[in-house]
Design brief:
It contains 18 helices and 41 strands. It is of the alpha+beta class. Among the domains are: 84 residues, Gyrase A, domain 2 (2-Layer Sandwich), CATH 3.30.1360.40; 116 residues, Topoisomerase, domain 3; 337 residues, DNA gyrase/topoisomerase IV, subunit A, C-terminal (Neuraminidase), CATH 2.120.10.90. The strands form 12 sheets. Strands 14-9-8-17 form a 4-stranded mixed sheet. A 4-stranded antiparallel sheet has the order 10-11-13-12, covered by helices on one side. Helix 14 crosses helix 15. It is elongated and about 125 Å long. The N and C termini lie far apart (94 Å).
Length: 853
């Protein structure tokens, strides 16, 4: 064997390795592992979708075997292993992997338990509507460039003409050489809103975009804990997003066994293997690293996921759940690494960068599509102009064609004699005789005029950028209308996290807490204002053995203070309480607050700020009252803070906000009311842990049911009584004229659905610890007073019954009456139902009237 010296090239080994490895790395980065920022697809996904499009596997066509699709992709575009192609196809059809799947699968495509899909010879697939409408439409309109495939026998697109930011919609993950990408999925409707906001304001910041795109939206739902990781990912391109499964603590009953508490997991973090999770929990229990679990079983079915973790009798559910969060994938981190290819180069992108790349690409696509349509329109119009010339000179042209020796001669003479182009001459020679009729001539003329208008419009689009922006916005809104779905992943605040409230709308809300401890938040606008004496709407899914316990109206930016019967106060931001539909039951409050088993929430209070000149008025079941400055409760620990010291057998029941100059009115179940000042003479300010003083003398089995605050400007005009007044009969029970008395009033509502407004002047100021005066006369012996509130002319109130029926009314719909009147019917009730609570609707956060239905 002879060696040819001229074929041997001496090369430095280190430089050759460096150069070769760099070329290999770039090949992997560009050709396999990283998605393009324009259409959000890697080459294999793009080739699968394009091959299916060429095969005609559109949503309106029958399914075809996946083996047929894989063979098409391998043979034409992707010369790699069939497993890699099939795995990519399967993932695009899995609704637990893709937020909006691009392929519709028929057959076994795997499960969240990591079960493998069936072999490609068994499964079938076709394109989803979203793929056609948002990725492949206009691909034949010269909107993107095509290149040769691996052997030069076919052409494939280098990018698809995406109409949505697909990379953010479905996310992407990939490991290249020396770099990796991990982009979370998002909600289509939110992405459209963000893109449109950027069209209107190109200088918008990443933080401002987060008002439209608050965070990822994972296909498996679950929760995102805190916003700091999201903000890091959106502003820096990298961030750790904490995901947490949705778990509820429930009491379960099995035949022949006593009741037990159980943790029910209904949603898992993105990319969590359910079977592996159950195995992990069982392993931790066997190793005694988690205590309190008696049994674990998977009750998931086609209706949804349900993992039941049954607890031992002496277990604390909240402690067990926290241990599960710490030691199992029920809580996991998503390491966002927003890396994608921009102009063939890998770049770390912010949220704004992603949308900028997408919108620039849309401008390019629409410009190219418009140029294509303009060229086609001009070519067609050019032909029509030739046909119109022929129709105008019909006899001469027929004569010319009849006497021509052949087609080429006829074509040449048409060009020479009538000034036509070769294309127009060809069209005339190919024209059918039926097109010579008068009707066909009119059609040609109408089509010509229509094309002239279209050409003018297309040229206008090319000349004006605002037209292009309008088209982008219009197409985005069409996709949102057709394909957008509600958000699945809820973003909740992490303990100790400082949140930017500007990112949360300050809307009016209603918070409902049931006797069994289920809490929920609903927009006030859910309940339109209704007339007096109607039945109202169901506000919650209340079980037979449950009922509404507390009812509060607030704004989403408020702090909600929760006071327990043991005198402990807890705090949550109103926006942290999960928002639910009217018919949902809500979530157990023990999931939101670390409340012990033997403790119960007895009062809720909305506070916008912890000021120094405001006081908390606390009233216990036994009638002890105290006043403590609000700022003493500004730093409430995660496990609560002592709010009041209670005597044996007493409970904290009511808490209100007041100022030094205000006065207090207290009502009892049997219809008595006492009114005294909140100043230091009647009620001296005390420390946070003080017990308080006696508020009112109670007669027989009577008990306190409500307390409210009268503002200082009203108190100044009310007479003072030095006497202890047990009862008092007014001279009249007639309706009081609203013209002479414009409020405020004391609103009194009974369990039987009756209510009235009484002028506050009829409740004389007394000394604390008196018996008070009669506030209402009951319709029957079974009726009782359920609430008293100080109201004004323009106020609105909401009432809720034991069954969870809510009615929203204007206060002025209730007639003003004297103290001794029975009132009017304010809500029509079923026989076994009763008014449970009454709350006033706060003024709109934006200074406008609340929305009505």
């Amino acid at each position: 064997m002879t060696t040819h010296p001229e074929r041997i090239i001496p090369t430095d080994l280190s430089s050759e390795m460096s150069q070769s490895y760099l070329e290999y790395a770039m090949s992997v980065i560009v050709g396999r592992a990283l998605p393009d920022a324009r259409d959000g697809l890697k080459p294999v996904h793009r080739r699968i979708l394009f091959a299916m499009y060429e095969l005609g596997l559109t949503p309106d066509r029958p399914f075809r075997k996946c083996a047929r699709v894989v063979g098409e992709v391998l043979g034409k575009y992707h010369p790699h292993g069939d497993t890699a192609v099939y795995d990519a196809l399967v993932r695009m059809a899995q609704n637990f992997s893709m937020r909006d799947p691009l392929i519709e699968g028929h057959g076994n495509f795997g499960s969240i338990d990591n079960d493998p899909p069936a072999a490609m010879r068994y499964t079938e697939s076709r394109l989803q509507n979203l793929s056609m409408n948002a990725l492949l439409r206009d691909i034949e309109a010269e909107t993107v460039d095509f290149i040769d495939n691996f052997d030069g026998s076919q052409q494939e697109p280098i990018v698809l003409p995406a109409r949505i930011p697909q990379l953010l919609l479905n996310g992407s993950s990939g490991i290249a050489v020396g770099m990796a990408t991990n982009i979370p999925p998002h909600n289509l409707g939110e992405l459209v809103d963000g893109a449109i906001a950027m069209i209107h304001n190109p200088e918008i910041t990443n933080t401002e975009l987060m008002k439209y795109i608050p965070g990822p939206d994972f296909p498996t739902g679950a929760q995102i804990l805190g916003r700091s990781g999201i903000k890091d990912a959106y502003t820096n391109g990298r961030g750790s997003i904490t995901m947490r499964g949705v778990a509820q603590i429930e009491t379960i009953q099995q035949r022949g066994r006593p009741e037990r508490e159980a943790i029910i997991v209904t949603e898992l973090p993105y990319q969590t293997n359910k079977a592996a999770l159950i195995e992990k929990i069982a392993e931790l229990v066997n190793d005694k690293r988690i205590d309190g679990i008696a049994d674990i079983r998977d009750e998931s079915d086609r209706d949804g996921m349900r993992i039941v973790i049954e607890l031992k009798r002496d277990a604390y559910p909240r402690v067990v759940l926290n241990n599960l969060y710490k030691q199992t994938p029920i809580q996991a981190n998503f390491g966002a690494n927003m890396l994608a290819l921009v102009n063939g180069e890998p770049q770390v992108l912010t949220l704004k960068d992603f949308l900028e790349v997408f919108l620039d690409f849309r401008v390019e696509v629409i410009t190219r599509r418009t140029n294509y349509e303009l060229r086609k329109a001009e070519e067609r119009d050019h032909v029509l102009q030739g046909l119109l010339v022929a129709l105008a000179n019909l006899d001469a042209i027929i004569q010319l064609i009849r006497h021509a020796a052949d087609t080429a001669t006829a074509k040449r003479e048409l060009v020479d004699q009538f000034g036509l182009s070769e294309v127009q001459a060809d069209a005339i020679l190919q024209m059918q005789l039926r097109r010579l009729t008068a009707l066909e001539s009119e059609k040609i003329q109408a089509e010509h005029e229509e094309l002239l208008q279209k050409i003018t419009d297309l040229r206008d689009i090319l000349e004006r950028r605002e037209r292009v922006d309008h088209i982008i916005e219009e197409e985005l809104n069409q996709l949102k209308t057709t394909h957008a779905t509600p958000r699945r992943t809820e973003i909740i605040q992490e303990d100790g996290e400082l949140i930017d409230l500007d990112l949360i709308a300050n809307e009016q809300a209603v918070i409902l807490l049931t006797e069994q401890g289920y809490i929920k938040r609903m927009p006030v606008s859910t309940f339109g204002q209704q007339s007096r004496a109607t039945r109202g709407k169901s506000a919650a899914k209340i079980k037979e053995d449950d009922g509404v316990e507390h009812f509060l109206s607030c704004c989403d930016h408020d702090y909600i203070l929760f006071f327990s019967d043991r005198g402990v106060v807890y705090v949550l931001g109103a926006y942290q309480i999960p928002s639910s539909s009217r018919t949902a039951r809500g979530v157990p409050i023990v999931q939101m607050l670390p409340i012990p088993k033997n403790e119960k929430i007895t009062s809720m209070l909305a506070v916008s700020e912890f000021s120094e000149d405001c006081y908390l008025i606390m009233l216990t079941r036994q009638g002890y009252i105290k006043k403590t400055v609000l700022s003493a409760y500004s730093n409430i620990r995660a496990n609560g803070l002592i709010a009041i010291t209670l005597s044996e057998g007493d409970q904290l029941r009511w808490v209100r906000l007041a100022r030094e100059e205000d006065s207090i009115i207290i009502g009892t179940r049997k219809g008595m009311a006492i009114h005294f000042k909140a100043d230091s003479e009647q009620l001296r300010p005390t420390g946070r842990t003080a017990r308080g003083v006696k508020s009112m003398k109670l007669k027989g089995t009577d008990e306190i049911i409500s307390v409210d605050i009268l503002p200082s400007q009203v108190v100044a005009n009310i007479a003072t009584s030095e006497d202890e007044v047990e009862d008092e009969t007014l001279e009249t029970e007639e309706i009081i004229s609203e013209e002479t008395n414009v409020g405020p009033w004391v609103l009194a509502i009974t369990t039987g659905g009756y209510g009235k407004r009484v002028p506050v002047s009829q409740f004389r100021l007394q000394k604390r610890a008196g018996m008070g005066v009669k506030a209402i006369r009951f319709k029957n012996d079974h009726d009782q007073l359920v609430a008293i509130h100080v109201v004004n002319q323009d106020d609105e109130m909401m009432m809720v019954t034991n069954r969870g029926i809510i009615i929203r009314q204007a206060v002025d719909a209730i007639t003003p009456q004297s103290r001794m009147a029975t009132g009017v019917r304010v809500q029509r009730l079923d026989e076994d139902d009763a008014i449970a609570a009454v709350a006033l609707v706060p003024p709109s956060a934006e200074g406008e009237d609340p929305e009505s239905e």
